[in-house]
Amino acid sequence: MEHTEQRVYEILEELKIDYIKYEHEPLYTIEAAKELDKKMGFSICKNLFLSSRHKTEFYLLFMEGSKKFNTGKVSKQVGVPRMTFADGEHMWEYLKIHPGAVSPLGLLFDTQKKVHFLIDKDVLNMEKIAMHPCVNTATVALSTKDFIEKILPASEHDYTVVVLE
After folding, report:
1. How buried is residue 48: exposed, middle or buried, by Cβ count under 10 Å (0-12/13-18/19+)?
2. Which contacts of 121-125 are long-range, i.e. CB under 8 A and separated by 24 or more positions?
3. Residue 153, CB-side half-sphere exposure with 13 Å CA sphere
4. Is 68 in a helix, a strand, or coil?
5. How many CB atoms lie within 10 A of CB 120?
6. How confident is the model at residue 1, as a pLDDT?
7. pLDDT tier at 83 (50, 70, 90 boundaries)?
8. Nearest to 133 by CA among 20, 54, 57
């Protein structure tokens, strides 16, 4: 088990967060998670690591898996002229995550507070959410309330709500 993944479980225990862990083959896309969705009884969310065009600002977008990402709509809502997908080097530097394992749990490792967290408003209405524990060979399911009220404060990150269709 990678150190980052182990630390995620330790933090979940420290915060007294109930979760269910699912181990699986590496999942790189929402499409690949369809079988896991059936097992869990709800859909895993999509995570996108984004940056401003000049790579001076970084964003983690957490959205319903079935929704399409529209760069222009998100950029406009957060006041960034043009967003693009961020590179793996910055992903590792700030979130301690490799491409394919992007997760809001990586915010726990963003000690420089370089990554702005964006969340789809419809995710806030979900009872449970699922995300990788910073590796793509496992998924943890937990309550949205615990994520918002315990994990985000522990990471010292706020969130910005975005409306996606």
Report:
1. middle
2. 121/161, 121/162, 121/163, 121/164, 122/63, 122/64, 122/67, 122/164, 123/45, 123/62, 123/63, 123/64, 124/148, 124/161
3. 6
4. coil
5. 22
6. 62
7. very high
8. 20
**Dist CA 50 CA 119 (whole Å):** 13
Residue whose tokens read 């979900």 = 126
What are 140's two structure tokens? 């943890």
pLDDT in tens, 113-142: 999 999 999 999 999 999 999 999 999 999
Residue range 43-76, pLDDT digits in tens: 889 999 999 999 999 999 999 988 999 999 999 9
Neighbouring C-beta atoms of residue 162, cutoff 10 Å: 19
DSSP letter at 33? G
> Taking the mean position of all CA atoms in its chain, how far away is CA 45?
8
Sheet of 138-143: strand order equals: 19-23, 138-143, 128-131
Measured CA to CA, the distance from residue 71 to residue 25 in angstroms comes to 30
Exposure string of 7-23, with b = 16+ CB inside 10 Å and e = fewer, is bbbebbeeeebebeeee
**What whole-number distance in Å separates Cα of residue 53 and Cα of residue 34?**
32
Whole-prediction pTM: 0.94
